[in-house]
Specification:
The protein is an alpha+beta fold and 414 residues long. It contains 10 helices and 20 strands.
Length: 414
């Protein structure tokens, strides 16, 4: 967790557009590297990019007809704000994360027995360990919420348990999530935003600077300019540290860097190493679909925000995150400013017929791996620089995961 930075940390006014800045050249950052980073981000369909250092804006860029007053979705990065709101409700004594979900939603919110249903707690929702069956993505109807495993024994990144946290919060506080966020966070920090139900999902929309403000709030342990917004330090510490042994790179809806292993969304396969190898090991981040990032780096007193469209074809844009953070590291004129090697790859056609030839283009050598959606390794093969052809056969129609050198893409077989 971050150190207590409040005394020397800058907090912008809660209203208006005033925000102190730091000249990047004063930090020893090279203009050529800054320009290269901006070009990279623009070419990767970014819309907004902000770096805060000690709370002050060092870089703030907008691309592709987007501006500082434009709102964008956080996608799953918004899960981290829900974590904060749940912590605030606990601090007020309105709920406890060890409560059974049934205490707040009543009985019958699942298609389980009352005993199975009652064993699921808010903590299980925060840690993605509810044990709920994940074969019906996004569905929150009771008929879809079925038993798979004992709570706490299985980790799977799955939206419905998180989505139902909104109902838990609103039941416990007797307020809508928008009203509760406004009174407990927005009025005190200037963090604006609106929760909107898109289909069955619960999505937070805000302006980029509000995401940056939230990063500052987390970096300062729930304190804002000398005022406590969330004073439960144990809860906040637990939120940004390993919450369970099944996925060491996951806290309370926060992704954690620098751990020995991690699991991606949509798979039970465990991978070794850090989730973003080129980012500082102490970084923790809210990460959302299409590369929405609010990243907090305590060792650097830094917050990094990126909003935009999908930067690449990866299931989880880790290649993009690695290149982005490597370029951030190389902003310093004392670091290497040599070109960052590209390691992207393409696989096509996608979808592919159950018996067909999969073409793979890669500008390096590596090992191609194909996994089932549950993480079972089906086969692997060495591939070479350039165009490779792999025969696909004897596989049932469905969704699969492909991986080369840590980069994962989804493959659909018809």
């Amino acid at each position: 967790m971050a150190n207590s930075l409040t005394a020397q940390y800058y907090f912008p006014p809660k209203t208006g557009s005033t925000w102190e800045t730091t000249d990047p050249l004063e930090l020893g950052w090279c203009q050529d590297s800054i320009d290269a980073l901006n070009t990279y981000l623009k070419n990767k369909d970014s819309k907004a990019f902000i770096i805060l250092k000690d709370g002050k804006i060092v870089l703030e860029e907008y691309y592709n007809n987007f501006g500082p007053d434009s709102a964008w979705y956080w996608a799953s990065a918004g899960k981290t704000m829900m974590t904060f709101l749940i912590g605030r409700a606990q601090e007020q004594g309105l709920l406890n994360i060890n409560d059974s979900v049934s205490k707040h939603l009543g009985t019958g919110w699942t298609n389980m027995t009352p005993s199975q249903e009652g064993d699921i707690t808010i903590w299980h929702q925060l840690t993605m360990t509810t044990g709920i069956d994940f074969t019906q993505p996004d569905c929150t109807d009771p008929s879809c919420i079925k038993y798979r495993d004992e709570p706490g024994t299985f980790w799977y990144y799955y939206n419905p348990p998180y989505t139902l946290l909104r109902d838990v919060l609103e039941s416990a506080t007797s307020k809508s999530v928008n009203n509760y966020m406004f009174t407990e966070v927005s009025l005190k920090t200037g963090i604006s935003g609106t929760w909107i139900k898109t289909g069955t999902n619960n999505v937070l929309f805000s302006k980029p600077r509000s995401m940056a403000r939230f990063g500052s709030l987390m970096l300062n342990n729930g304190q804002w300019d000398g005022h406590s917004i969330l004073g439960e330090t144990k809860y906040l510490n637990d939120a940004v540290n390993t919450s369970q042994s099944l996925n060491k790179s996951y806290g309370y809806l926060w992704w954690l860097n620098g751990k020995e292993s991690f699991r991606y969304p949509a798979t039970t396969k465990q991978f070794t190493g850090s989730i973003v190898e080129k980012a500082p090991a102490d970084m923790y981040a809210g990460i959302g679909k299409n590369g929405q990032y609010v990243a907090v780096i305590p060792s650097e007193n830094m917050v990094v925000v990126r909003m935009g469209d999908n930067p690449d074809e990866d299931l989880v844009p880790t290649a993009f995150a690695n290149e982005m953070f490597e370029r951030i590291t190389n902003l310093s004129c004392t670091n290497s400013t040599t070109a960052i090697p590209k390691s992207h790859w393409k696989a096509y056609p996608n979808p592919i017929e159950s018996s067909g030839i999969l073409s793979i283009e890669f500008n390096q050598g590596g090992i191609f791996q194909l996994y089932s959606i549950t993480g079972e390794l089906l086969f692997e093969k060495a591939i070479q620089l350039g165009l490779n052809s792999l025969e696909i056969q004897n596989l049932q129609a469905g969704i699969y995961l492909t991986r080369i050198n840590g980069m994962v893409k989804k493959l659909i077989i018809q």
